[in-house]
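User: quick one
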Amino acid sequence: MIPQSFQYESPGSLSEAIAMLQQYGEDAKILSGGHSLIPMMKLRFATPEYLIDINGIPGLSFIKEENGILRIGALTREADLEHSDFLKKKFPIFSDATKLIADPQVRNMGTIGGNIAHGDAANDHPAVMLALNATIVATGPDGEREIPIDEFFFGFYMTALQHGEILTEIRIPVPPSGTGNAYYKMERKVGDYATAGVAVQITLDDNGVVTAAGIGLTNVNPVPLRAARSEQALIGKPLSEASINEAAQYASEDCNPSSDLRGSEEYKRSIVGTLVKRMIHQAVNRANN
Amino acid sequence: MLKQITVTVNGVQHTLEVEPRLLLVHMIREVLNLTGTHIGCDTSSCGACTILLDGKSIKSCTVLAVQANGKSITTIEGVAQNGELSPLQEGFKENHGLHCGFCTPGMILRATELLANNPNPTEEEIRWGIAGNLCRCTGYNNIVKAIQYAGAKMRGDELPSTEPEFV
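Assistant: Done. Structure below.
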């Protein structure tokens, strides 16, 4: 399968890329890792007239911590996230999630920025970003703006990114000690989208009281979903079997999965409940170690 | 509108005029006539089109030829050196790591990067490492053995037995 013809541009700087996006408007698409876009172009589901390849722009691929903020460049490949020793120490959730994304070859190309900017509720990073309370940085003609993750996903493949803007960075507050995070998705086979996926981050104080909780759900709602009631069920009290069960129950009630080849609605709700429990336990185990 | 690109394929530099929509796998197979790289699923699932792009294994059915501009490519034709099979090729041959052979070029290129990053992988690491390559003949067991054999050869360790196991 061969994509429809398009004009290819490979700008060497961010400002050049943004100028091109402004010039070409809605007829342009950004090429990052390309592993969501190129398959869609091959199927002719996407037929951009202009492709702006941002892979030649320096300074967009990095993983670093500055002033209590984890900063990840949008062009950072999934494979780099997967193998980052720094992330394994403080954010093992990235290793959890990335090793379940597609397969090694795809992870050598696919980028975190593309995964999020695609706006697909079936992708794995959005739920992780919700759990970690990330901020998305979009760079446009007027410079940078920060978009809280809860304001980023609008609808089916729709995000807060405007034409002329490029998702350039993800910023995540480094949580205090006593924090653990974890992600798992149920998939039928390698490379599949999640039947359901759950991302959890929990912070416990010295007395074992939950002071912060973030829970994001993958592929059980038209947009990536924060399990807000589940978070509230945990916060402000010591973790107990009862509060964990309550959180799981709320998540399975509040998601909106559709019945499809991956399972019935009822089945997916039960998977969500089970995974919420498991991920809370895993996050807490990591917090305690 | 044609784009001029320069790519180094198996050590040979080529300057080509290509359509931006030309897929890398089509450039390799149809422009350069290197037909050892196979197209299986054409949907970045099966791994038959796996090549090395600047040393990293990628699925060339889901990358544009223009994206390879200025980069270096290794295909299965470039794996043997001076007529000598690479350790992986030898491993596949000695361990019956192939039946029909369709997936083998992609398997070998993927395993090349795997062993470069992890010279002594566990069986589990090998199985996860080739998770993006489908084989419909072997049941994978002999492919795993072939990669273990190649790893041992590259490390200079004693070579594992190539006798078939009946389980």
